Amino acid sequence: SLQKKTLLWYLSQAGMSGRDIMWDQNYRHNLRIRRVLEEVVKYFPGDRRSAEFQAFMRYTKRVWFANGIHHHYSGDKFQPGFSREELRELVLATDSSEASWPLDPGQSLNQLMAVIEPIIFDPAIDAKKTNTANDVDKVLASAVNFYEGVTEAEVSAYYSARTDENPARPVSHGLNSKLVKENGELQEKVWKVGGMYSPAIEQVVYWLERAISVAENPAQQQALELLVAYYRSGDLADFDAYNVAWVADTESTVDVINGFIEVYNDPLGYRGSFESVVSIRDVEATRRITAIADQAQWFEDNAPIMDEHRKNPVVGITGKAINVVSETGDASPASPVGINLPNSGWIRADHGSKSVTLSNISAAYDASETGALEEFAWDEAEVGRARQWGQLAGLLHVDMHEVIGHASGQVNAGVGSPAESLRHYASTLEEGRADLVALYYMMDPKLVEIGVMPSLEVGKAEYDRYIRNGLMTQLHRIELGKNLEEAHMRNRQLIASWAYEQGREESVIERRERDGKTWFVITDYERLRELFGALLREHQRIKSEGDFAAGQALVENYGTRVDPELHAEVLARYEPLNVAPYSGFINPRLVPVYAPDSEEIVDVHVVYPDNFTAQMLEYARIHSHLPHTN
Fold first, then answer.
1. DSSP letter for each residue of 28-54
2. CA geometry: angle at 478 spanning 474 and 481, to 5°?
3. Any idea of the CA torsion for 407, 413, 419, 425, to the nearest 10 degrees?
4. Nearest alpha carbon to residue 396 among 451, 332, 348, 342
5. How far apart are CA 188 and CA 192, in angstroms?
6. DSSP string, 434-502
7. Which of 158, 170, 230, 444 could form a disulfide with 238 if both were Cys (CB 3.0 to 4.6 A apart)?
8. Which stretches within 126-235 are classed as H helix?
9. What is the mean pLDDT of each run of 10 residues along the chain (630 residues)?
10. Could you give the strand order of the β-sheet that contains 353-358, starting from the edge strand earlier in sequence?
11. Using an 8 Å Cβ cutoff, are 558 and 498 in contact?
């Protein structure tokens, strides 16, 4: 309908309006550097086919893709691939009568370059966006723009001293602010209208208020009104009120995630990165997820965890599949395939949660995987199983991970939130726990019984893929010599390597060699399921009891270090496949059609651009709402 099209347009604009926030959150110099690069892209008059300019464009596209100068997954600062002299030549050759350089008052272009060149080229300056190593001050060693002038110990002490008006309903302290030290005192600079990032947030609010005017129903209208109220107040209790209303809205076909949501970029796990995901329901695929969500209590009751760690009753789990219309911030260009929100434990327990699988994103990722299966699967039987059942297996894993996994289990009374008790290991352990729930049930006849998969061959295909990826194929995403630091990569290796080691005496997973190459082959799927169940039990115990030492041991012993010989082999085997280690998405463009001489929208057209550079420049032109430094 026109109403829904218009709603999608307004919500997409609201998301895009916050785009610059993510850039500044990732690193305090990102916006200024991006704006220099973009002026060169637009106005450099020289030979664009030269090796120098091509190297410059590769670097610029990597920066666009990562929303900054640090890799979106590893957090390592990009190495430009050209010299600082070459960059300055490009900048000085660019037509300054056209270019709008991000200069401070009274600053010359040469002075600007003297500031940003060391930031770009010196590998020792702010080398890591998020540093979770054990032997460093994680706050001081991280380039992410969430803290200023404070140490890890000061941050921990600051939030340990915080109390909640209602301890049973704690707010997510630190989620929407930057913590700084001014005049010797720690204070939060809150991201809200009238606070930090106000120019962008005001635009987000403007478009959300337009969306309210065309909301599908009263429940959606109320949720959006509460989201606006939160952006105006910056009060995290208002964010909780919004989340309760958002979870309660189960009828709307159009939906939006908009806010400071996931905390993976904060080395201490407090602060949320801005993201927006605007979507419309995938009705057919939602039937599959609903069948799973309807059995949530059965899955909880039959999980191989301690009785005292079970959630009883399981409340309000809503599962659906969506087709993404637009994404920005933390969700773009690289997109998640599944989302489970809200992250607040008490809201999940009292009001439930929404779990979504991103159907069109998952399908696109599947279509882009070429060649790796044949290279890393042991035999034709494994290849055939993956071809026949791999796509369904992947979707079911995401469904179970999001709908059942994240929503399952409970923390013992008196134990703090995982961010407090498990600290910088919380994200890895939580993603691992949700994966283990999915893996345990992927080989359960219950999924056949409720009609979401035809046979246990689907589960076997997922076990094959998970072990193949966790022990080998994901290594092509990181540079030789690096350890794993991203939460999802850590948890996948942790699970796969723990299962391999625990099942070694029984040869549950065999390491085989052929033609000088390595494979990991599952020989006993039922026994592997039992191992996944045992590890799930331990993951849930660690979360429920807040056992930091046990969680640390799992992550450090199984999820962090990489076998350098195996890593080199994986990279060598991937090279001839010419498979990009990461995939991202160009957003569709929604184009409103207005009545003649009127602001009345009469239609909204969807255009599918295919030029990444053009889209990045368009967004910079239309959606740059923040100053160079914030």
1. TTHHHHHHHHHHHHHH--S-TTSHHHH
2. 120
3. -80
4. 451
5. 12
6. HHHHHHHHHT-HHHHHTTS-SSTHHHHHHHHHHHHHHHTGGGGGS-TTPPP-SHHHHHHHHHHHHHHHH
7. 230
8. 152-160, 198-212, 218-233
9. 97 98 99 98 97 98 98 94 97 92 96 98 97 94 98 95 87 97 96 99 99 98 99 98 96 97 96 98 89 95 96 84 94 91 92 87 77 93 96 94 92 88 94 98 98 98 98 94 92 98 98 97 98 98 97 97 97 91 92 92 95 98 97
10. 254-260, 274-281, 317-329, 353-358, 338-341
11. yes
Instruction: State the pLDDT at residue 369.
Output: 66
- Which residue, chain included where needed, has tokens 């691992």? 432
The C-alpha atoms of residue 18 and residue 63 are separated, in whole angstroms, by 18
The span from the CA of 395 to the CA of 282, in Å, is: 13
Residue tagged 């909301």 (tokens): 215
Exposure b/e, 538-550, CB count within 10 A at least 16 = b: bbbbbbbbbbbeb
Write phi, then psi, for 178 (nearest 5 degrees): -105, 135
Instruction: Tell the residue number behind the tokens 């998640």, with chain if given.
Output: 336
- For the chain, the distance separating the N- and C-terminal CA atoms, rounded to the nearest angstrom, is 40
Which amino acid, 41?
V
Give the distance, in angstroms, between the CA of residue 9 and the centroid of all CA atoms in the same chain. Answer: 23
Positive or negative, the CA dihedral 448, 452, 454, 456 is negative
616 Cβ contact list (under 8 Å, min separation 6): 38, 64
Query: For position 118, what pLDDT does the model report?
Result: 98
Domain boundaries, the chain: 282-577
Half-sphere exposure of 370 (CA within 13 A, CB side): 9
d(CA 310, CA 176): 31
Buried b (16+ CB within 10 A) or exposed e, 494-526: bbbbbbbebbeeeebbeeeeeeeebbbbbeebe
Tell me the DSSP string of 107-144.
--HHHHHHHHHHHHH-TTTT-BSS---TTS-TTTT--S
According to the model, what pLDDT value does residue 60 have?
Answer: 98
Q: Given the structure tokens 């509460």, which residue do they identify?
A: 226
pLDDT score of 363:
82
* pLDDT for the residue numbered 375: 95
- Altogether, the residues listed in the chain come to a count of 630
Q: What token pair was written down for 244?
A: 């309760």
Contact by Cβ (8 Å): 542, 551: yes
